[in-house]
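step=predict obj=Permease YjgP/YjgQ family protein n=360
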Amino acid sequence: MKLLYRHIFRQFMTSFLFASIAFAALFTLITMVENLDEFFDRGIGISGIVWYYLLALPSTFQITAPVAALLASILTAGRLSASSELAAIRSAGVGMSQLMRPYVLGGLLISGINLLNASFLEPAAAKEKISFEKQVLNETRSGLHEGTNIHVIEPENRIVTIESFDAKHLQASKVTVEQFNGSRLISRKDASRMVFDPAIDRWIMQKAAIRSFGADPGEISFSTGNDTLNLLLSIQSLQELSLQPEEMNLMQHYRYVKEKMQAGFPGLDRARVKLHAKTALPLASLVIIFIGVPLSTVKKRSGLAAEIAIALFIGFLFLGMQKTVASLGYNGIIEPWIAAWLPIILFLGAGALLYKKAAS
């Protein structure tokens, strides 16, 4: 039995490796054809182009891994079925659950690698890739970064507005702090510059104009001078405001979403969907195997080309569904966790039905 498992596992992983390389080469070739003229127009050499597309590989492998796993499972199980090996295995008393073991082991290995990729390698590569685009291609991306108004809702009815933030030098400009009592404004502080003082772990609002408003409309007091400010957002979170979600590792992304939700930041749906997707998408390679193997255990007259076509159709159907449902989550139509996990749940249900049918 161990020899059989090793044989199936080796065939499955070999097929997955070749499929992943083929998809990566195809995706790279397509994007390279689109962008090659721009690279040469900007005087970027071959080494720069190669480096740019190497940085895109972790993301490409992450996206295409479910399709590659499905294709590998269909081809491996299909070969066993076509050569009558599967019939001999089943007649020897090997059940469907036993037959699935090497595929599940391979799926767990692929999902584990994908999870590490999504958590660490892909964000690091994305950060370098975006930096390359900014410095060499002069491209910018939308999001919270230096020069964008930042609004933080603090505890005890306090609102902090920062017009621009320099993450490198830990300083901000045009800062406003408004303190409310219910709906009534009781104080406002304005400073053209704010710097962080690590000695006291506080922000210093330099030459702040401080206004206090009494209960009567005309009761206003005014003073100037430096003032300290303790923000709910940590220094690390403020430094990460210039990062896109795809540039953050899993822990950074979790902390980013958690602290920004606590600080009252609006429009976090996209970041929350991407956070859930970092754990959901790696598991797709395992889930989709439960569709591929049962689908190929029935001996068919169709050849290799038909099996590849079926695998590609189902695989890209999953990717299309994942993109469509994610866009619903980005726009707040459905909950972020549902947007990330719904395609996985639906395909897991389809796999369970196919598995039950193949096992009977």
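step=describe
The chain has two domains: 2-139+268-359, 150-243.
step=end
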